[in-house]
């Protein structure tokens, strides 16, 4: 039972839960970026390059024989994946920069002045003794 308790303590920590949420959102965000790249960015690039569809670019190492498929190096798909990565990395960079700016603005706000510290009971007693000694002189 100790192992299960340790696992529950680990899995329910805030950082692990935050990371899990981040991974899920990141996966969804990756799909959105892939769609933007495939449907918005790559078509104009394909027109500029003469209608070349990057995902179809490949180098055939061995032609297909019978039921065996051709052996190819799909460098067009690699180019597509690199473009996806660069766009995702740029978006994450902008998001981190934005969050850092928000955090910095929160830190720059001046803190309310701390209230004057109240003397302790011992200090109050010593002050009274001092005042009484002054009166006797």
Describe the structure.
The chain is mostly helical. The protein has one domain (2-109): Orthogonal Bundle (Non-ribosomal Peptide Synthetase Peptidyl Carrier Protein, Chain A), CATH 1.10.1200.120. Helices cover 69% and strands 5% of the residues. It is built from 4 helices and 2 strands, in the order H-H-E-E-H-H. It has a two-stranded antiparallel ribbon with strand order 1-2. A hairpin with an 8-residue loop joins strand 1 (59-62) and strand 2 (71-73). The chain is elongated.
Descriptors:
Non-ribosomal Peptide Synthetase Peptidyl Carrier Protein, Chain A, two-stranded antiparallel sheet, 137 residues, elongated, mainly alpha
What is this entry, summarized?
This protein is mainly alpha-helical and 137 residues long. Helices cover 69% and strands 5% of the residues.
CATH homologous superfamily?
Large-conductance mechanosensitive channel, MscL, domain 1
How are the strands ordered across the major sheet? 1-2
CATH topology: Non-ribosomal Peptide Synthetase Peptidyl Carrier Protein, Chain A
What's the number of structural domains? Answer: 1
State the helicity in percent bands.
55-70%
For the record, the CATH class is Mainly Alpha
Q: Could you tell me the mean pLDDT?
A: 80
Task: Compute the number of strand runs.
Answer: 2
Distance between the termini: 75 Å
Number of helices: 4
The main pleated sheet reads as: 2 strands, antiparallel
Second CATH tier, the architecture: Orthogonal Bundle
Q: Any idea what the shape is?
A: elongated
